[in-house]
Amino acid sequence: MAVVPASLSGQDVGSFAYLTIKDRIPQILTKVIDTLHRHKSEFFEKHGEEGVEAEKKAISLLSKLRNELQTDKPFIPLVEKFVDTDIWNQYLEYQQSLLNESDGKSRWFYSPWLLVECYMYRRIHEAIIQSPPIDYFDVFKESKEQNFYGSQESIIALCTHLQQLIRTIEDLDENQLKDEFFKLLQVNISLWGNKCDLSLSGGESSSQNTNVLNSLEDLKPFILLNDMEHLWSLLSNCKKTREKASATRVYIVLDNSGFELVTDLILADFLLSSELATEVHFYGKTIPWFVSDTTIHDFNWLIEQVKHSNHKWMSKCGADWEEYIKMGKWVYHNHIFWTLPHEYCAMPQVAPDLYAELQKAHLILFKGDLNYRKLTGDRKWEFSVPFHQALNGFHPAPLCTIRTLKAEIQVGLQPGQGEQLLASEPSWWTTGKYGIFQYDGPL
Ligand SMILES: O=P(O)(O)OC[C@H]1O[C@](O)(CO)[C@@H](O)[C@@H]1O
Ligand SMILES: [Mn+2]
Asked: Could you tell me the sign of the dihedral formed by the alpha carbons of 421, 424, 428, 434, in that order?
């Protein structure tokens, strides 16, 4: 096995990982408890006393969790039977065995940061599924919906832009089509779309209210790595060489719901309308995750909302999107692997079926910061290590990560570039100010 650097961890006092575990995660847990409190009467109306009892139970489990975190207690195994319980517990044991070799402290501040955060969201889910009849409740649903409602102006602007574009798309020459592709990619880049990560803002609203299309030029200097040209060559080549009945499949590993998901769907629509792709496959999360991540409910809910908008072009988008789903041109997939704590290089062993599915893609787009952390194992790589190397054997198909930097990890930079940024702006890689399109695959 290749030698890989150590994991980011809360052991490094003052690091972003440390601050997240110390401040942000407890804050998120408090918000979750508060959300349950606020829904008490709703639970009563729906389920009577039983609903209120369930709410109390969930709250006590979550309070216990917050206490374990704040007093840095050892991780405990999951108890409630769910599809991934055994895999989780095996992984916790494995991490414990690694730590035993060093100082034996398998706790919140000593374990890999990626594990700590994933564990917390998985335990939130456990508290909910242990509390029937409210075991269906998504504690983050409200904030995801607010993000969508708060971004209406931008959504209308994007839908209008897309519908006008589709109307003239056949008259565009190669260069114009490429420009449009780049424009929508940039809208989609985490820089704008991904500002909707509600786990960074502690669940506070971070909706988009301006026409993002107007600010693209101003934001260009903040794209540190820009492999958009490779994406264009790859897809335009597929389009040119594609036989009549054959397919070009683009997979999007989704991140946040709300405005960011709209930008993903706009891009996915453009890919079909421009014939750069013939199928788009979406991968979401099976359980509520990192506050704002997309589940199948969010995906369906959002398309329904777009379809029922009073705005002509917005509702046209919604109707088209529903049609794509009916026709099988858009396919949504669930897989439990996306909410496991494993780095993606473990996918061939842990989820070989998923890896085999991904191998069928012509291009995979990984959205957001958490996907980047899992692609690179959330490790302390040197800035100039090639992306291919940091992927550590994870090469199912050509892939591109679209992300704003919100964690102390970045590879594939020019020698000295990362160090220079660090010297002039110590928090350059955690504020979401910079973004990347980083490609790995044949050139
Ligand atoms: O929604 P994204 O872009 O995947 O971000 C997830 C966020 O959660 C974190 O993991 C920290 O809580 C950050 O790395 C990042 O800000
Ligand atoms: Mn997210």
From this structure: negative
Contacts of 255 (CB under 8 A, 6+ apart): 190, 194, 197, 292, 293, 294, 367, 368, 369, 370, 371
Q: For position 190, what pLDDT does the model report?
A: 47
- Please state the domain extents for the chain: 16-129, 141-440
pLDDT tens column, 348-362: 999 999 999 999 999
Supply the DSSP symbol for 339.
Answer: G
Q: Provide the edge-to-edge strand list for the sheet that holds 279-284.
A: 223-226, 435-440, 399-404, 363-367, 249-253, 279-284, 330-334
Distance, CA 35 to ligand 1 centroid (Å)? 21
Starting from the CA of residue 289, give the closest ligand. Answer: 2
Say yes or no: CB of residue 20 within 6 Å of ligand 1.
yes
Mean per-residue pLDDT for 6-12? 95
Ligand 2 centre to CA of 439 (Å) is 20
Q: pTM, whole model, 2 decimals?
A: 0.95
Q: Which of 406, 410, 431 to mutate to test the pocket of ligand 1 (most atoms within 8 A of CB)?
A: 406
Q: What is the mean pLDDT of residues 167-191?
A: 90
Domain 16-129 classification at class level: mainly alpha
Percent of the chain with pLDDT over 70: 93
10 phi, psi to nearest 5 deg: -70, -5
> Model confidence over 97-156: pLDDT tens digits?
887 665 666 689 989 999 999 999 999 999 999 999 999 999 999 999 999 999 999 999
Of 366, 378, 342, the residue nearest 122 (C-alpha): 342
How close is the Cα of 406 to the center of ligand 1, in Å? 6
Q: Are 436 and 401 in contact (CB under 8 A)?
A: yes
